[in-house]
Amino acid sequence: MEYSYRNIGKIVSGFGLKGEMIVHHHLGKNITVSKIRIIFLEQKKDELLPYFIENIRKKGDDELYLKLEGIDDKEAASRYIRRDVWMKEEEVQQHTQKNNPIVWVGYRVVDQGRDLGPVLEVIEQPHQVLCRLEINTREVLVPINEQTLDKIDHKTKTLLLTLPDGLLEVYLS
User: Fold this and answer.
1) Which of 60, 89, 154, 163 has the largest CB neighbor count within 10 A?
2) Longest C-alpha distance within the chain, in Å?
C-alpha cells in the first residue's frame, strides 16, 4: 500500500542529556500528542525512515519535546537537528483540527469562480498563510488572509478566494 506523507515540522535542537529533541511543528495548538506513535525522518532525498516515539509532550503552541526509541544521549540526538519531520497524511488529518491550515494541502483553490488548482504546500507566516500552487508549470504563492478568503468548504475541499487584481499576472507573465 502506497502512503502519502506530510511535512509537519523540523527538529530544531536537542534537549537535555538523554536524547530528547525539540520539534517546531505546524500541527496547530489543539493537538493530542499522546496519540502520535510514529514519525518519519528523511535519511536521503526522498527516502523516509520510520522512528518510533518513546515519549512526546507539548512545549508550547508550536513546539514539542520528542524522545525517539534508540536515541539515548545528547550526541545521538544532535545528528537529527535540522531534519524535517514527516507523518502519514491520514494521521495528520486525525491529529489536527479542520480549521488548521495544514489540512488545506490538496484542497482546490478557486478565485472568483476560476479553478487555480490544488494546494501543494501551506506556508504559515505571522499575519497570513501562503498556499503554494502550480499554474502553467509555474510556482504561485497565494496569500490567505481576511481580505482574500471568502469561504472554506471542507465537504468539497475548496478554498474560495477573491485575490487582488494583478497578483496572478505577477507570477504568470
Assistant:
1) 163
2) 55
Q: CB-hemisphere CA count at 13 Å for 56?
A: 20
| 63/58 Cα distance (integer angstroms) | 6
Question: What tens digit of pLDDT does each residue of 122-145 get?
Answer: 887 777 788 999 999 999 999 998
**122 membership: H or E segment, kind and range:** strand 121-124
Kindly report the CATH number that applies to the domain delimited by 102-172.
2.30.30.240
Backbone torsion region of residue 80, taken as left when φ is above 0, otherwise alpha when ψ lies between -120 and 50, otherwise beta:
alpha
**Of 61, 77, 58, nearest to 15 (Cα)?**
77
C-beta separation of 101 from 86 below 8 A: no
Provide φ and ψ at 5, rounded to 5°: -120, 155
Q: Are 67 and 17 in contact (CB under 8 A)?
A: no
Residues 94, 37: contact at Cβ < 8 Å? no
| Architecture (CATH level 2) of domain 5-94 | Beta Barrel (2.40)
